[in-house]
């Protein structure tokens, strides 16, 4: 197919060192590059021998969720497919790149650090203190705004409203990895803004084995089998529950994001998957992910039928 998503090549000469080492943490190998067309970007390998389940890859899920975020008009870091030269292996390795979305002169604050400085006893009570309520409280109390370079949506005026949208994205995509270092606040020009959403590789069953996808229908997949990083009094919650908690706190924002979820045409979702190169995703992974998206959307809308104006 001629309309496949492009694959960008990153050479050893493009590699750079930055003052943001936290972004290099994680199971997958990562490196910063200065691409002549894309600018500063972070490469993440698609696979790693350190992954708990062998032979899984999540470069495709990074790209697909980014494309879905565009359908929702949700600010997210831009992801592209990439090949990066590995000097040790003397070959290019597959992965994804995310284009740096931090404006010049701004510094980023990881969510965990932000919560430590905003919520009493957050650090000593972690991980149970990592709750949707605490995140939204910290954003509200510190008057955090939306990204300045985001076009915006009517009715979404503050970071609290926008974070509800991040949780809506997680809910429909089964995004399980929004832990305290997978969202950030940026400081600059005398203000605090929420950083666009990033790091969605664990979404859409990206970390599931092929055997799991083959034996469990996505429509029957129990959401509680894939918990989010958020907690409530009963323990960790799944992504749909996390969105519901936020919706109870900010119902007006939730309605806006629900309306956008409803408007997503499943044919457009299929078109996104059709553009993923065959070597980046298996037919089974593509089918499971699309079925999971449809099942999640149905679950979310069913749970919110009490908001009849949205359905």
From TrEMBL:
This is HipA-like protein. It comes from Chamaesiphon minutus (strain ATCC 27169 / PCC 6605).
């Amino acid at each position: 197919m001629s309309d496949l998503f492009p694959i960008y090549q990153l050479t050893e000469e493009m590699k750079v060192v930055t003052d943001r080492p936290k972004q290099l943490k994680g199971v997958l190998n990562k490196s910063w590059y200065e691409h002549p067309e894309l600018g500063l970007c972070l490469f993440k390998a698609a696979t790693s021998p350190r992954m708990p389940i062998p032979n899984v890859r999540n470069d495709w899920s990074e790209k697909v969720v980014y494309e879905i975020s565009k359908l929702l008009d949700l600010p997210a870091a831009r992801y592209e497919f990439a090949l990066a030269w590995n000097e040790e292996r003397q070959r290019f390795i597959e992965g994804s790149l995310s284009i740096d979305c931090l404006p010049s002169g701004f510094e980023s604050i990881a969510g965990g650090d932000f919560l430590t400085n905003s919520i009493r006893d957050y650090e000593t009570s972690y991980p149970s203190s990592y709750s949707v309520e605490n995140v939204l409280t910290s954003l509200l109390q510190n008057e955090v705004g939306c990204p300045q370079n985001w076009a915006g949506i009517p009715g979404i005026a503050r970071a609290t409203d926008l974070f509800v949208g991040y949780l809506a994205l997680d809910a429909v995509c089964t995004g399980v990895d929004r832990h305290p270092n997978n969202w950030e606040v940026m400081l600059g020009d005398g203000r605090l803004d929420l950083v666009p959403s990033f790091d969605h590789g664990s979404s859409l069953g990206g970390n599931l084995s092929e055997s799991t996808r083959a034996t469990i229908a996505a429509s029957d997949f129990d959401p509680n089998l894939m918990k989010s990083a958020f907690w409530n009094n009963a323990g960790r919650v799944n992504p749909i529950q996390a969105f519901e908690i936020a919706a109870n706190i900010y119902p007006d924002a939730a309605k806006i994001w629900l309306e956008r979820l409803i408007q997503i045409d499943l044919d457009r979702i299929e078109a996104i998957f059709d553009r993923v190169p065959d070597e980046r995703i298996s037919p089974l992974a593509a089918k499971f992910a699309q079925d999971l998206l449809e099942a999640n959307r149905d679950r979310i809308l069913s749970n919110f039928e009490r908001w009849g104006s949205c359905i």
